[in-house]
Amino acid sequence: MTPKPKTTKAKKTSPKKAPALGGESFFELGPKVKTLALSLVGPLGLELVNVEMTTDNGRRVLRVFVERVDSANQGVTLDELTSLSRRLSALLDEADEAIAAGAKDAGPAYTLEVSSPGLNRRLFREEDFRRFSGRLAKIKLPVDGKLRTVKGRLATKEGPFKLITESGEIPFEYGPDLLAALIPEI
After folding, report:
1. Per-residue confidence at 123, pLDDT binned at 50, 70, 90?
2. With b meaning 16 or more CB within 10 Å and e meaning fewer, what string describes 103-139?
3. Which of 76, 86, 138, 143 has the highest local Cβ count within 10 Å?
4. Cα–Cα dist 184/135, whole Å
5. Mean pLDDT of 108-127
6. Are 165 and 152 in contact (CB under 8 A)?
7. Is the pLDDT of residue 114 over 90?
8. Can you tell me the distance from the alpha carbon of 146 to that of 26, in angstroms, rounded to the nearest whole number?
9. Would you say residue 143 has pLDDT above 70?
10. Three-state DSSP state, 51
11. What three-state secondary structure class fits 91?
């Protein structure tokens, strides 16, 4: 039997002790990566939606979500996502090079993913809830003392946040830990 050739995925190195990024661990780099990404999206006519540092099947993933500033007319193109990914990757590589000479451990490998939020987008920011008022969504909310996924229409344009369901209105408060996503209506 001939052995199968090993395949490798292109990965970036995330610095643990990078002077340019402040010496944080991978999961603490989100705000600084967000700052780097913000410096790139404006000139491309894009808006940064969220930066997510996570693990997926044991691998570290840096996810950057962007959308067109005026997304009502058109979405983000593949060319724009590719351009942003390359530019952000170059900035992250510069931070990696800043520590490569003297550091014993340049940090754990990670995969950079740059994408649009998509049709079933998560709602990350308070302004997302207001912007998508009237749309069908699912939100994890406390119901009868338990956390449940509730589906309904967002009623969040003005005033307190509400989800309109078949059984009535459910008021809720925005918070950074609130898990919510749009449900595509096609």
Report:
1. very high
2. eeebbeebebebbbbeeebebbeeebbeebeeeebbb
3. 76
4. 9
5. 86
6. yes
7. yes
8. 32
9. yes
10. strand
11. helix
**175: pLDDT strictly greater than 70:** yes
Using alpha carbons only, give the angle 148, 157, 31 rounded to the nearest 5 degrees.
70
Choose the final residue of a domain: 76, 96, 115: 115
Residues 102, 16 share a domain = yes
Most confident stretch, 2-6, 28-32, 45-49: 45-49
Find the domain containing 169 and state its range. 126-182
Rounded distance, CA 142 to CA 59, Å?
31
Rounded average pLDDT over 49-60: 85
Would residue 142 count as lying in a domain? yes
Helix (H) / strand (E) containing 107: none
**Paired tokens of 167:** 């059984």
Write the DSSP symbol of residue 15: P
